[in-house]
Specification:
The complex is a heterodimer of chains A (106) and B (262). Chain A is mainly β and 106 residues long. In chain A, 0% of the residues lie in helices and 52% in strands. The longest helix of chain B is centred in the first third of the chain and has 21 residues, at 3-23. Helix content of chain B is 43%, strand content 7%. Classes of the chains: A mainly beta (106), B mainly alpha (262).
């Protein structure tokens, strides 16, 4: 179940500061939690998040253990031109989760 | 004041206290509040915004499952029930309900599994599994804003009163009943957390402490462990009886599923 919820305003005025909210479902296994035999479950977290706006990087975050399951990120950027915001999460297994959202700037 | 008078006053207080405990009854209608009202502003905002409410991840998963063909019958939920927004509206607000075939009350998750085994001829989903929580959350989300309206089915009465007895039963090593916290002391706090009135308005819900979705039965299990009583297996009749009584106790409150709780 890798599902993400992304909230980007569909329309914005040029130069307007917009908020982007992104929630993804992920267990964020820390690597410190022992199983019934005392052996820790292997670490499996989302370690990187990148948001690009028409292929320009506008936000990047490194995530670490002790961030809750289903991490939620919220950040701001300036609406410069119409186009696509691409949100990419990378986890320890190297798997990419990609979500795209379109914005019209007028 | 003399020692005798002191004793008299103390005794009077003791009597008053004992009396108030003995008299403590159901919370009057005007004072009934959902767990939502006890939360902090930030948690309330998290629940209200559909893009920050993590419960929505399960609801979306459930929406996909609704249309998926399952089991030997190769039928989807949608093929019988159609558009969930219409057919499932208010359903979660009246469950648990009496099952005529089983002669037994069933809760929403159990009803989904009955449908799965009888109509779809698929294997039942495990309690607290991602799939069962997702489908239950999707069905429950259709009742958002509906008022809790327990059925007046007479066959439910003995089970509901068994649930009421269980709610008032002192148990566990701490010798506590549900009512002592949730009827008598809901204005208070326990180790910094609000006690709340225990109205099941938003289940299944996303609990920040669990970092996942969970059912009402999981929450009851939590409380039972907290009072150091032995919890039951998931799906046990005692849980369903307690659910019946709790829904009746919360009648009239609006549903807010998928809820977020601390």
């Amino acid at each position: 179940m890798a599902r993400a919820l992304v909230n980007v305003p569909t329309r914005a005025k040029r130069g307007q500061v917009i908020e982007i909210k992104a929630l993804i479902s992920h267990p964020m296994e820390t690597g410190y939690r022992p199983d019934i035999n005392g052996k820790p479950y292997p670490r499996d977290i989302i370690n990187k998040f990148i948001c690009t706006y028409n292929s320009t990087e506008v936000f990047r975050a490194d995530l670490h253990p002790a961030i809750s399951a289903n991490p939620f990120l919220s950040f701001f950027t300036v609406a410069t031109e119409s186009g696509t915001l691409t949100l990419t999460w990378t986890d320890d297994g190297g798997q990419l989760y990609v979500e795209k959202a379109n914005i019209i700037v007028e | 004041m003399s020692v005798a008078a002191d004793r008299l006053v103390a005794g009077g207080f003791f009597l008053l206290f004992a009396f108030s405990v003995a008299l403590a009854a159901e919370i009057p209608r005007g004072e009934r509040r959902s767990g939502y009202a006890f939360m902090g502003r930030e948690t309330q905002a998290m629940q209200d915004d559909r893009t920050t409410n993590p419960g929505m991840l399960w609801v979306l998963e459930g929406e996909a499952m609704w249309d998926r063909k399952e089991g030997a019958a190769k039928r989807s939920c949608a093929q019988c029930h159609g558009n969930a927004a219409k057919s499932m509206k208010g359903v979660a607000a009246r469950y648990p309900a009496f099952d005529a075939k089983l002669h037994w009350p069933v809760d929403l998750a159990q009803r989904i599994n009955i449908c799965r085994t009888a109509r779809q001829r698929a294997s039942p989903l495990a309690y607290e599994s991602k799939e069962l929580l997702a489908l239950t959350a999707y069905v429950a989300a259709q009742s958002q804003g509906s008022k809790i309206a327990p059925p007046s089915d007479k066959r439910l009465t003995p089970f509901r009163s068994a649930g009421r007895d269980f709610f008032n039963l002192r148990q566990g090593q701490l010798n506590l009943s549900c009512a002592q916290c949730h009827d008598d002391n809901w204005r208070g706090r326990l180790a910094g957390s609000a006690i709340t009135q225990a109205h099941p308005t938003g289940y299944p819900l996303y609990r920040l402490e669990w970092q996942t979705m969970g059912s009402l039965q999981r929450r009851m299990r939590n409380c039972l462990i907290g009072m150091r009583a032995e919890p039951f297996e998931y799906g046990a009749p005692n849980y369903v009886a307690l659910e019946l009584y709790m829904m009746w106790r919360a009648r009239g409150l609006p549903m807010d599923s998928p809820a977020v709780r601390p």
